[in-house]
């Protein structure tokens, strides 16, 4: 295999691994703040129990997010030197602002949030929690600004083949940024909602009747039920925005080869790039035209418009985009059904009398958010091929000149490490659920601990 | 906007400061990891507790340093990182292992604690060795020949020992009793790593290039430079003297090994900065040749000038909140 392909696989593997954890921490930070504020208000112990359980998941996810993120920031130089050389004048400041305004904030206050409860006044601890949540959201903001700019570049000009910024406002608020940011933040919220609901259901099924379990179940299902309709709406608007700026991507998502009206919404198809048609398809007539143009006779662009005179294909590979889009939407629909069925069941029977099959279903969907998020990113990123920065730089132009054997060896090493860590992570989370979040270490008394200073600490 | 000649210099200085902060700050927590095999289980818990609230922020200085290289000197960034492709990958995997082992050892089932402790140690070792290796390769001008790789292997070992020295200094500062006494012994062993490492780099640097040789050994530079080795030598003697008398009544001077080690690292770094300036890729590319556009640098500088003091402020706050001897880590 060549360096280009290996570098792409390696980048995709690293970022896919990385994004799993920010997806959890971005929303979980805010949920923890919610638990804490509820406890401060009600003094009901169950909110503190919820906080104590989920803060452990948060700490673990955060560590995974940080270390895999560090890998990401080196990848630009090791594998894609052409990227910074061409668009560094735009990408550089955005990345710098992410480090300065987000990473330090989260990293420093994380220590206080996790271990400072007994050392600082309550308000400072709540503030640290808020700042950590804010920091993760800020880093999502900056990185998505950059990623959106790569899809829909604006506010720049090309001077001697190098991108120079002309309008920072237009760069930051580039056309797809608001949609992508909203869609990703909602994705994070949904991932956390289903994780909380799923693990609480698992604890319930194992006979854990702590008050925090039923409450966690209710919080998770409710959060999911509220967010999923908004997500579907946001996703639809995102698609319309993409139709305007990257029509070839939408054509691949729809599996539509010819520009035409009355385009069906395909539920299943086998796109074939050799024959440039679908070998087999099942669809709902005219529905894609209705969704994309709000009119059954609406004309939707097709893939054949994106083949140059000399036959060079300038649209993305169709099957992966087509399928990952369907996986995402499919999981979204499953979330809709499950969350609202849960609301109905809770309303009829209460959160502590849910049928066992339903609880098993929730447990099975604990990590559904990960699936949809990855599928969504694959749609977006593969849908941008062959461009790295739409219309400016192709992936091929950016790749570094390294021996392919070297890339292969590091790729294998990363994959091995990631496989072990992912298994360990999921294992530990279920292990924590089985123990109700109690660690083995004798947990210090919840009261205040005296602050010990150098010299006055009694010998142990 | 800002002066196009001054800007690259300012960014090189900022990058230097964040590398230095990284080496000192993550140096001590990497060092603590390197010392793991010499400690028993309770001692390990306490050592972990002493770095728990800090390690994440410490590593962020590496992200800032690499970020500044990336954004301010994009051309050099590609050259340096592709030349160091393999050691970078080893370092990244090391950082991954130790960062997560830290969390897993406390949360995984009891029987799994040992393997995660091993992962913590191994990750710290991979990180320290690869950083030392990269330091050596950088000094040698980023060329892969047997002799140069040999030199880099030497600096790899030396940096690992130096990190364990500053780590031991940290443990002396943050603990007491039997563990503190043990850490004093570790420090006595580790100090030789610093001497060897600084000695090797100092001896090799002027030999690599005539330009650096002249920069060191012509008059009046040689007189101005003389304090660097003299102060370093003095510090080593003072450290040795103090280490032989620690721990003292009322914990006096427990801070000295850590501060002394920090001072040594700062001095060594100044020496290197002096030699290589104004090159960013040794002997090939100066900071002006590698810099991004003035406009991009200005945008970043404005933000940096606002944000950096705030970052330093809350970093100091965190060290202040967790001052004193390390106590058990708990989320309550
Ligand atoms: C700042 C830039 C950036 C960001 C935030 C993302 N990507 Fe990306 N992605 C790239 C920059 C990029 C890239 C550098 O442009 C790649 C590398 C090679 C390529 O084809 O484009 C890429 C490719 C790429 C590929 C391979 C596509 C192919 O080669 O056909 C996948 C699967 C992903 N990405 C997945 C993701 C995921 C899961 C992300 C969620 C965080 C993500 N990307 C965010
Ligand atoms: C190429 C793309 C990316 C790079 C280079 C990158 C880089 C990094 C780095 C270096 C860190 C560690 C920071 C620290 O030391 O605290 C990090 C963490 C983080 N990243 Fe990324 N990242 C990328 C993609 C993304 C995306 C797409 C998102 C969100 C949508 C994201 C959200 C976060 C968040 C929230 C954290 C904080 C740590 C955590 O919560 O787990 N990143 N990233
Ligand atoms: C069910 C209705 C949904 C629709 C119609 C929808 C629509 C879309 C579209 C059109 C894109 C591609 C954007 C582009 O052109 O780049 C996208 C991307 C994405 N989707 Fe969805 N989506 C839905 C549900 C979900 C769910 C449930 C999740 C996660 C929980 C999710 C997570 C993502 C992510 C992470 C991306 C990539 C980031 C981005 O480009 O915004 N989506 N979605």
Concise overview:
The complex is a heterodimer of chains A (460) and B (332). With 460 residues, chain A is mainly α. Chain A has helices spanning 3-42, 45-79, 81-115, 122-151, 168-172, 177-205, 211-245, 247-254, 287-293, 318-349, 356-364, 368-382, 395-398, 404-434; strands at residues 156-159, 162-165, 265-272, 277-284, 387-389, 393-394.
Q: Which word captures the global form of chain A? A: globular
Structure summary, number of beta strands of chain B? 2
On the 0 to 100 scale, the average pLDDT of chain A is 85
The greatest interface between two protein chains, and residues involved on each side, is:
A-B, 84 and 77 residues
Separate helix tally of chain B: 14
Largest sheet of chain A: 2 strands, antiparallel
- Judged by helices, strands and strand pairing, the structural class of chain A is mainly alpha
User: From the helix content, strand content and strand pairing of chain B, which structural class follows?
Assistant: mainly alpha
- Bin the strand percentage of chain B: under 5%
- Secondary-structure element sequence of chain A? HHHHEEHHHHEEHHHHEEHH
Radius of gyration of chain B, in angstroms, nearest whole number: 20 Å
- Count the strands of chain A? 6
Q: Percent range for helical residues of chain A? A: 55-70%
**Oligomeric composition of the shown chains:** heterodimer
Radius of gyration of chain A in whole Å, from Cα? 24 Å
Distinct ligands = CIS-heme D hydroxychlorin gamma-spirolactone, protoporphyrin IX containing FE
Give a quick set of tags describing it.
heterodimer; A: 460 residues; mainly alpha; 2 domains; two-stranded antiparallel ribbon; 14 helices; 68% helix; 6% strand; disordered C terminus; B: 332 residues; 80% helix; globular; binds CIS-heme D hydroxychlorin gamma-spirolactone; binds protoporphyrin IX containing FE
What does this structure look like?
The complex is a heterodimer of chains A (460) and B (332). Chain A is built from 14 helices and 6 strands. Chain A is globular and about 70 Å long. Mean pLDDT of chain A is 85; it is low at 441-460. Chain A has helices at residues 3-42, 45-79, 81-115, 122-151, 168-172, 177-205, 211-245, 247-254, 287-293, 318-349, 356-364, 368-382, 395-398, 404-434; strands at residues 156-159, 162-165, 265-272, 277-284, 387-389, 393-394. In chain A, 51% of the residues are buried. In chain A, a hairpin with a 2-residue loop joins strand 1 (156-159) and strand 2 (162-165). Helices cover 68% and strands 6% of the residues of chain A. The longest helix of chain A is centred in the first third of the chain and has 40 residues, at 3-42. Chain A folds into 2 domains: 3-252 and 306-444, no CATH class; 260-300, no CATH class. Chain A has a two-stranded antiparallel sheet. In chain A, strands 3-4 form a two-stranded antiparallel sheet. In chain A, strands 5-6 form a two-stranded antiparallel sheet. Chain B has one domain (6-321). Chain B is built from 14 helices and 2 strands; from the N terminus they run ααααααααααααββαα. Chain B has helices at 6-34, 41-51, 55-72, 74-83, 85-107, 113-139, 146-174, 177-208, 210-217, 221-225, 227-245, 256-276, 287-290, 294-321; strands at residues 279-281, 285-286. In chain B, a hairpin with a 3-residue loop joins strand 1 and strand 2 (285-286). At the A-B interface, helix 2, helix 3 and helix 14 of A face helix 3, helix 4, helix 5 and helix 14 of B. The structure holds CIS-heme D hydroxychlorin gamma-spirolactone and protoporphyrin IX containing FE (HEM) (2 copies).
